[in-house]
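Summary for the funding panel

The consortium committed to producing paired sequence-structure records for every protein in the target list. Below we show the first two records in order, beginning with the earlier of the two.
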Amino acid sequence: MLGAYIIGIVFAIIGLIVSGVLKSKFKKYSQIPVKGGLTGKDIAERMLAENGIHDVQVISVAGQLTDHYNPVNKTVNLSESVYSSDSIAAAAVAPAPSAITLFL
């Protein structure tokens, strides 16, 4: 029983470390704009259109790094920091939930 608690604590610590590194990298690359000024929303919409997907809407949701695809209402939900940003961080994150729609 003690072993299970230790394993749980180890995984929790690893999760916190990974989360911290991810947020740090996102913050760093949020300061660098992409050429062309496309926002995360623009990139996601372009990716969907270029793959013939026209029934999925790209919307903004609250939170940080809460980006995901919702198959129930067919929306790509981008966090506010990705949706309206023209940074390379947003350009890297925005296509990920859009790409999921290609496999559904």
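The next record, for a separate protein in the list, is shown here:
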Amino acid sequence: MKYPLVTVVWDDACSSGRWQSISELTGVPKRCNTTGYLLKKTKESVVVSHTVSADGDTCCELTIPTQMVKVVKRLRK
């Protein structure tokens, strides 16, 4: 496989769909872990996908802005 398998640890925006007291709000982003094939890594973003075809097509890619990325850990070659 041309693309390495990685886990990306990143902080995402989060919201609540319910009424709550302002004092309950933590102001902390949601820590996420995404595992997939690393398709592209640039100064602006990291792009991963859970599916890559034999002829090099992909679907369900996720582009994560670099500012949100904490760690990109390679799982295997």
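Regarding this second record: The two ends are 8 Å apart (CA to CA). The first strand starts at residue 5 and ends at 12.
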